[in-house]
């Protein structure tokens, strides 16, 4: 598996490799996530969280010896396990079988007349084939000052261990270090499904979208990183120019939106997507809380060449549960045509409530902010004289095409506002 080793990032230091597993050490959480993502990509497998133990600060932890020199090569060192995690192959343990009554089983023998919902359910459960492959990691605290050679005698180890215990009990400085011990299961551990073919074949909707966008000449500049992304855009389509000879507001809104989606789903030269939003969205959903668009006059100047466009993304503001992204669209003349600020909230899909951004993520992106404040747009109510009919009042129904996945898309609100504004101005 030499090729696999090469495809893993340098932050993963190998300690052991067998036919079924590669073991290694990783220094921090961020590198752990990067290694796991690289491993899944390289082996075309995916793993889902099965069990994570939470660290219990109140409970005294057992001090163990690392026996194989996996934490410090050639040495054993005392350590405690702070957290451990098991992830199963996505083709892993089967779900508990459904209890099927005889009437239902008759029903299921009928030719496929089921509703869409039942078909989706069947597809989901058929993916689980009981594959036993598991990925493990544990977060450990170790004490390098108390290490011993691998062949140290039992009495020497006991002496060293009691020295450590005394130092811990009396609050003496013990200079602990932390790391993650990771066990990555190799393709032969997978069973009942084909690792290289079956898991690689189905193209996700997201992958399909990105492939389509690339095919329309939208691409991430190779210099892009997770801190600063640049998307090369072929320019506004001809139908974006309205009957007054101006680029329509919605075409500018959609252009910024598509470019941002490319930056947030394509890996730059550091192997990461912009602000690692692809990883943030794993197990979460994101919600656009507020957007601000500043269109500059150069957008309306016919003399200004409008292709190709450079769309740059920078880290706006990083808060506890939300962050903002600043998107600038620059013309070949160097003039900025549009600046957008988007305030994005991370949502727990179960509670549908805002949830905290990961600490390591906030520590990483927090210092890169270009804005001091989050973008907050106060809630507004219609003026009283509009609701009683003294002023023009615009009523509308949200159409299917205004929504994405049962939710009104944030760009639709801009269109709703414009649709209300222009007739209102005409009526006075
Ligand atoms: Zn598997």
UniProtKB/TrEMBL annotation:
InterPro entries for this protein: CaRF (IPR029309), HotDog_dom_sf (IPR029069)
Protein name as catalogued: Uncharacterized protein
Residue runs in coiled coils: none
SUPFAM superfamilies documented for this protein: Thioesterase/thiol ester dehydrase-isomerase
Region of interest: Disordered: 94-124
PANTHER family registered for this protein in UniProt: ACYL-ACP THIOESTERASE
Native source organism of the sequence: Littorina saxatilis
An annotated Gene Ontology molecular function: DNA-binding transcription factor activity
